[in-house]
UniProtKB/TrEMBL annotation:
<dbReference type="InterPro" id="IPR043129">
    <property type="entry name" value="ATPase_NBD"/>
</dbReference>
<feature type="domain" description="SHS2">
    <location>
        <begin position="6"/>
        <end position="171"/>
    </location>
</feature>
<protein>
    <submittedName>
        <fullName>Type IV pilus assembly protein PilM</fullName>
    </submittedName>
</protein>
<dbReference type="InterPro" id="IPR050696">
    <property type="entry name" value="FtsA/MreB"/>
</dbReference>
<dbReference type="InterPro" id="IPR005883">
    <property type="entry name" value="PilM"/>
</dbReference>
<dbReference type="Pfam" id="PF11104">
    <property type="entry name" value="PilM_2"/>
</dbReference>
<dbReference type="GO" id="GO:0051301">
    <property type="term" value="P:cell division"/>
</dbReference>
<dbReference type="InterPro" id="IPR003494">
    <property type="entry name" value="SHS2_FtsA"/>
</dbReference>
Amino acid sequence: MAAPVTAALDIGSTSIRAIEVRRTKSRPMIERFEQVELPDGAVVGGVVKDEKAVTAALKQLRSAKAVTARSVSLAVTHQQVVVREVEVANLSSDEMRLALPHQMRDVLPLPVDEAILDFFPLEDPGSKETVRGLLTAAPREAVTNTVEAVEKAGLKVDRVDLACFAVLRAVAAVADGAEAIVDIGANTTLVVIHTAGVPQIVRTIPRGGHEVTSVLAHRLGVAVPEAEERKCHLGIHGGDAAHAEAMVEASRPLINEIRSTITYFAKTQPATALHRVTLVGGGSRLRGLTEELGKSLTVPAVVGNPLQYVGYARRGGSHDAIGNHRAAAAVSVGLTLGVAS
């Protein structure tokens, strides 16, 4: 009997990544991975704004046999996503579901009736009156709009997960102390600081690679496509002095946001040492970024490997989708590696 296949979709602001992984005795093996582009404005800030465009892209993936399973897992990311360690009354799962909206009303940045809440225990409370765990909250609109677009493409959504949990499963590598995982996308950057796989800080920054390109184009007086080509080819420190100076300025706002998140963690948890910053996402491929981050931080910045816990057949060339998009595969790969714990 063939091993079961797990399928997942990572719907970002500029593209959709589809993956299918087959479980084997040794480790999960990627069988299919494809990426299809989305038109501008189809997904904004993690919310599907153009349902028809997203559904059409998903149907394109299905017709190309990138998704053969009927059921898929989805990831959600949004600036108002909350992941917070809390201590709540030790209740049964049904009682907890009813009590959470009342207990968490004053600690959420959005109205509880507009949020989907969940709670993941971090301990076995036994007979204790309280239990320590992770509260998660996501805007209902971000979840329901995405699910509807996927289902209209003929797929069934069997699980919705937070992107921060998916990234952790794919990338987390530091067992002692803390690690900051930074997933740099086109328009948003997800920062997850964890200790032993448990998120301590989750933040979505509304900045990404496109902003760097736009600032570079403005500084050099060139069209955006040319600026994108220069950015990808020369990186931050390549080219002439004008390019290097413009790139340092263009990347500074994003670097400052990442640094401020790490500084906040250091101030609020002074007893926990941060061992390193791990970069993933399409923006992590920017040459010179780890060096620029290193100048701002007291810990090393490295580029992570989202494929470290899975295997795949290396085909090479332009048809090697997972190899060509390795950096951006963290969320989709992490979705196939299990449920959040």
